[in-house]
């Protein structure tokens, strides 16, 4: 299989940093779930947690980064970080859009009883994982009882106004394929989700994002166990889309690890491939503008972002 970087050269695609617009922050790998496809390998026993001094440093850098308009907070379950609310409040005070990548079931953990109300009070955009509208499929991927808790959480968010027209409270859902195949049409699947969730539970939401499973970490382990790794990589490479490649999310996004290390995307972060191929920490820079001068690091897992309609944290690319 031709390497991803060689494919870029062959198609004459020059991917460089644009001014940073999205700051994605992984505040830790602690999670109340341990999903089979999780590229973070998050779970209840993980101890990696972003410290307050690191959160404070990010807030300082935000003040020096006028082009960044979105702070995208992920994990693990980001809400389990004790400094999650500090980061959210600080970003909102600076008029940044804030995204909480929520697994939904976290709302029912001890100490999280008011989290949904906190998100509403700060007008945080919720991007919630729901890999299917079928209980059987969700529980198979994410664990027994997860589907029922997810539905309860979505109903709670709806009660608070999330997903409702003209409420200003955005609720988007995320679909990941249940196996070694590309996501279906995002538009068609969104219609299916809206129909099924509304008819069965009265649930409303704004948009559905389809995200390709990346061949790394737990999903990679699954592919190897099932002897499907080469097949899946061939599928991704054969569906390489040059248009999607030219607008990949790493062009205007930077990813920060729980320890403050800087990466071009969340996937590179989990593979410990640093931005510019040289390990840099937020304590090593004075402004995020310095990142614009470094090259973007690529590897063959990047085929996952450029196959078919493309894939990003905001769903399909084209």
According to CATH, the homologous superfamily is Aldolase class I
- How much beta, percentage-wise? 5-15%
Structural class: alpha/beta
In total, how many beta strands? Answer: 8
- Rg calculated over all Cα atoms: 19 Å
Which CATH architecture?
A: Alpha-Beta Barrel
Q: Which strands sit side by side, in order, in the main sheet?
A: 6-5-4-3-2-1-7-8
Q: How many alpha or pi helices? A: 12
Spans of at least 5 consecutive residues with low confidence: none
Give the overall silhouette: globular
Description:
This protein has a single domain, classed as TIM Barrel, CATH 3.20.20.70. It has twelve helices and eight strands. β1, α2 and β2 form a beta-alpha-beta unit. The radius of gyration is 19 Å and the shape is globular. The model has no long low-confidence stretch (mean pLDDT 95).
Fold blueprint:
Blueprint: H1 4-10, E1 22-26, H2 52-63, E2 70-74, H3 84-93, E3 97-102, H4 115-121, E4 125-129, H5 135-142, H6 146-159, E5 171-175, H7 186-201, E6 207-210, H8 217-225, H9 229-238, H10 242-245, E7 253-256, E8 262-263, H11 266-270, H12 303-306
Parallel strand pairs: 1-2, 1-7, 2-3, 3-4, 4-5, 5-6
Antiparallel strand pairs: 7-8
Helix pairs in contact: 2-3
